[in-house]
Design a protein that fits this description.
This protein has 160 residues and is an alpha/beta fold. The chain is built from six helices and six strands; from the N terminus they run βαβαβαβαβαβα. The chain has a six-stranded parallel beta sheet with strand order 1-6-5-2-3-4, sandwiched between helices. β3, α3 and β4 form a beta-alpha-beta unit. It is globular.
Length: 160
């Protein structure tokens, strides 16, 4: 259940260090990692970060257990950036992670999962045998089942 690495924020992830490890593919969680839960908006700062990472040679996919509306600004921004969105991922099951790898034509040893939850992002990444990076959630506003997961995370020793 322990991530391979932790960072103080998404922007605080050691992307250079990931590159030095041979990581070229980033599988990013959406809600409370890239953008706030259920806001329907994609922050300009997150789009700038994704562009910068792409310029550094990273290939990126975004995974979410949610289903976004067809006219979602999040969906539109990711499409403009050429970043695949894997919805209804059913994390922590590994299938969506593997699907994202196929979409990006990547191998497991060159990919990292970055997300804010131990029980979905980290556990799913570990089950899929990927490198995992845990970041704090952007906000405490989240789904009821996520709040339950946070209670379990605290029991497991995670401090938020």
């Amino acid at each position: 259940m322990r991530p391979h690495a932790e960072a103080p924020s998404l922007r605080g992830v050691d992307f250079r260090g990931l590159g030095e490890r041979g990581i070229r593919v980033l599988l990013l969680d959406l809600d409370n990692t890239l953008c706030l839960w259920r806001t329907g908006e994609f922050p300009a700062s997150a789009a700038r970060l994704l562009r910068r990472l792409q310029a550094q040679g990273f290939r990126i996919a975004v995974l979410t257990n949610a289903r976004l509306p067809r006219d979602s600004p999040v969906r539109q921004t990711l499409a403009e950036l050429g970043i695949p969105l894997v919805e209804r991922a059913k994390k922590p099951l590994p299938f969506a992670f593997w699907r994202a790898l196929r979409l990006l034509k990547a191998r497991r040893n060159e990919a990292a999962v970055i997300g804010d939850q131990l029980l979905t992002d980290v556990l799913g990444g570990k089950i899929a045998r990927l490198y995992t990076v845990l970041v704090p959630p952007l906000s405490s506003r989240e789904a009821r089942r996520t709040k339950i997961n946070r209670s379990i995370e605290r029991f497991l020793g995670r401090r938020l």
